Every structure is written in structure tokens, then in C-alpha cells.
Please model this.
Amino acid sequence: MNEKPLPLDLTEGCMDLDAAASADLLLNLWHSLPASAVGRFRRSAFVDTDPGLLQIWMTTGELRVAPHDVYFSVGETVGTPAAAFPDCGLRWEHTLPPVFLPEWPPTQAEPGAPYTTVAHWWGGTVRFGEKELSNDKLTGFLEFARLPAQTAVPLEQAISLGRRYEEWRARLAPLGWRLREAWEVSATPEQYRAYIQRSRGEFSYAKPVYVELVTGWISDRTACYLASGKPAVVQDTGPSRFLLDAEGVFRFRTVDEAARALARVESDYERQCRSARALAEEHFDARRVAGRVLERALAEPVRQRARAVGV
Model:
């Protein structure tokens, strides 16, 4: 960002910009990559992983994304009439988050294993027009805090709480929640995978901003649960062509819907596990996802780069 050289421990084994720029395509997931770097490549594609938020920040001028040839988003509604936010005058292609299936084999959980999630709670607020939108996942959780009273399945969260861990454990235990410190169970990729694969399934809520803006967002974490053969019960963030709320994934809007979804999974658990893996193989397989992204990025006419992105 300040054009100073990066430390050697960060760049060791990496290509320098001159060598990298000879590639056929730059696939960029960082919204602040300087235009001078993006412009070095023959063709560039940007991947948005914060749907709704990114477009708001671009519209308000808080972010200025360098011009790219093609724009992707993990938000299924981005650039469609269903989205409750602007498209910034760009044409957005949708891509699902990928998971590398060989590293996430189906794994059977021990009896009594809980439904889990891994999350960070605090994210502040975002102003858009006259609205103050919550980007705070704790706010999303509180809406479903009393769910354990409506289901017989154990529910556990791994949250990065630091010094506030004991405070929140004391508050959530009476409501029926198990709580883990996220850094203790997911500090490395291996720990993260082991924690997910020891789970019976995923139960997770979304940041309110993803729901209110109707983003069609789904987490890459959920893709990892599905690949591991773990059914996912997750909050509805908008219409989807891939998540049909029937096999492997169930989406909810209210506490009652969440309880019913968990009951449906438990009523035919083994089939739902197989369906979860099948869904990952069909839609989230990294080889297929990357192949589709590359095919579209390389086939798209170079026509958006000249457009100034951000105001």
C-alpha cells in the first residue's frame, strides 16, 4: 500500500511482480490491490468475498477498486434485481466458494457430537443512505440465542473471545450453548479441519447486513462442512439456485424455522450426510469452481477495465 518492499519472511518463495505479470490472468481477491499492479497483467478478474458491503463501500467512495476486466462475487444476487444494494455499474458474475475435496473427506462424528460453527462476533456497523446496517455477527447470534430450548441436539460455537471468554461462557451456558475459544480449536488449517470434521453438522447464523441486503451469500466454512459430509443448517441470506433447503443444506429465517430444520436433518441423518457431500461435489468442488471462473474470465471480452470503479 505504501510502495515499500514487503518483509522477506512474507515474500520468500513468491514470484515478483515482473514475473507474475507474464501470466494469462490475474485472479485478485484483494479489493485494495493498486491499479498500477493490476494494470501490469494482460487480463484481470476481481473476486468479491464481501457482497453488499463491498458495493456499498465502492458507491460511497470508502473503497476504490482498481479497474478489472471481469468481476465475480460469492453473493448470488449481486448485480440482479433481488439485491438491495447497487451494482456500481458493473456486470457481476457469480461464483460459489470452492473447497478442495481431497483434503476434506467425509468423516463420521462420534455419538453426541454437537452442531458447531467457527466465527468472529464483532464487526461494527455500516451506513448506507439513511440506514445503519449491522456488520456485527454477535447481533445476528442474539436473535437465535434461545434456540437450544427448542431442540434436543447439542449446539456449540467456537468464537474468538480472548479475555471475554469466561464472561460469555457464563452467559451462554444457562441457555444451553456450549462455547469454545476459536483460537484453541482452529488456530491452524489442520485444527480447523479437525474441529469441523468432529462435528455432527453446522449450525450458523449470518451477519445481519448480509441478510438485510439480500446478498445470497454462503460461507466457505459451510462448503467445508458439506465436503466433510456434515449437513448444514444456516441462515437464509437471499434466493439461491443451488441451495434448495431440502438436501444437505437447510436455511432458516426464524428460531422456529431453525429448530424445524435441525429436526428434519436428524429425522434422516445418514441420508442428509450423503446429500451434503453430494452437494459439495456438484457445486463447491474447487476444480470445477476454478475451472468455471477461469473459463468465464478468459472468454469475457476486455471491456470493463477502462471504467472507473468507485467514486
Remarks:
- The chain is about 35% helix and 15% strand.
